[in-house]
Amino acid sequence: MLKKFIPTILLGCVISTNYAQTLQEKQTSASNIAMTINNLGMIGNAFKGSYYTGSPSCQFPAKSGVEHLFQGGLWVGGKNSNGEISVTTGAFESSAGYSAGSPNFEMTAPVGATLGERSSLFNSPLYNPNAISHQDFYADFTDRNLVVPGTSKPVTQTATGTTIPHKPLGLDVHFESYNWNFVFANFFVILNYEITNNSTQDIDSVYFATWADGVIRNVNRTAPGGTAFFNKGGNGYVDSLYLGYEFDAAGDVGFTESFFALKYLGASDVDGTNKDPRFSPNFKVHYNTWEFGSVGLYAAPQSDLERYVKMTDGLNYRSDWNTIQTQISQPSNRSTLITAGPFKKIRSGEKVTVSFAVICAKKVDDGLPNTANTVAQKANLLKNTSWAQTAYNGEDVNANGILDEGEDVDENGKITRFVLPSPPNIPPTKVIARDNAIDIYWTKFAEESVDPISRKKDFEGYKIYKSKLGYDVQSTIDVASNLELVATYDKPGDKIGYDNGFEPITLAKPVTFGEDTTTKYYYKYTLNNIQNGWQYVVAVTAFDQGDEVNNLDILESAPLANVYHVFAGKPANGNIKSTDPFVYPNPYYAGASWEGPSTRAEDKKLMFANLPKRARVRIFSLAGDLIDSFEHNQSYKGEDAGWYSTYSSVSNTVFSGGEHAWDLLSANSQIIARGLYLYSVEDLDNNKVFQGKFAVIK
Length: 698
Description:
This protein is mainly beta. It is 6% helix and 37% strand.
């Protein structure tokens, strides 16, 4: 049976269906998880729509090509005053993913509703003092509508093979997601739901869950689609951590060495009580998993009653749980459901808050196959899970739901959640590419940072990183693991780090750049012996002194939050006669080593160098036919070549000013044949023209 159907219609991040309701999608980008989230509280994009326009579903590491999720969302189940069971599913397994009015996608939003975004980072254009994390998304939706807003299309659900009208619980949901760029916290995304009962009835025996259809595959090697893509996942559950996870058991093993996990973090009942199974009698967290198209124990629930049973009776409470754990670690098409409850009663007008987390982690290779599913293989996952729980606990360090002595850091008299220890601020940085060199400048901004836990200015020093040459042409791309530390400078005399001081990198006089005369750069570090035309990622971080009193290690700002994709090369040519433009590599061989594993025709590149500040470049056949042309200026960032959107990041790319990439496609996007080609470079400031030639060998 085909598990998923992947449509070929290309849609943007704001997707308008045939109906009036608008779906708005955005992708997390502060953390190292690049996950699609929409304004109906769903996660993942089902490998359609925005996926086909370049947006990941849930990639970890970001831009690696390793996907982890088809789609997921919130579930709520309960009983009305007559004892009738109703379950609202925000997302459910569907071969085509979400579409407005499809059965079991029962959350809706008003026409024109959007997904808001804000940031706690001072240097972000989305900075908001109310932000919780480095990137918050937020939205409001409801299960109270019987038709898709603005249409006559009914909201429906399935009931044992038939489609019936949706049965609302009467819920309004305010949804927020949080993710951070900290090195110690850039591997999880928190999903926080504030749920209000706005029906006229009380809801009894309420359970909240998050459901996800995980799939861990490397899409740089295997394109999404077909049963064989989706039926390779192994699953498991860690009862003590309320953590359900999935891994690639038999698909792209060796190129997908990571976990996708869902975790229950905690909840606040209507009276403010912290709902933790360790402190709340009869409150439990249930784990369930089922196989697409299966029957029996691993069959998908087909009605509200069956869905409620899944929510209230976890596999982890069965007597044969040990056998089940062995079975579910084998390859198959499975979903994961993590449920917490019961909340005994939510009266009309009352609200509760419940939090889950999406967590990713690199697998530790212990020499055993993935299906062995050992504790050693999960070491990073367990560590990452601990940090996600730490973020949720915030001031409630011991998770007992009580503000104990010394825990009220912000002195507001109540538990503040989603608080993490903080490294110094990211140093504002300016990067300049030169011929075989890269200059890195940065400010003193990080040195004024105040830690939110210790309340001290605890800045200690800086670190400079550079990526390995050719990291971006591997089958699995992971920027973070390819960054190499090239230099460290820290305060002298405090017996922390090298005590080598900042004199070697301090400029004699602060510098400014361009029209920005307010940002002063005090430090400079130069990377020499850089290969022109190749991509290097560079970053500057700041680290603190640690805090023995609060048992905190030295913390460092996130390299990935301050990376620049740099291409050293020739500067803009000021005199086209004294230094002629040229092309490299020349001759060009098909599949040049710097192009990576992509087979897309758009991902080829040939570099034109020694170009004037403003130029028009034309490419001709030997017969004189115009093949293609483009304009160059010294602020070029690779925006017209597909390679840079696939393997780089145009938003923070740095070129030398005199180089420009061409994708070896004609103006009509046709692949050019092998042979000899002519080109001309016209300086648009003085109309001087240079002519040259290059060869393409295939």
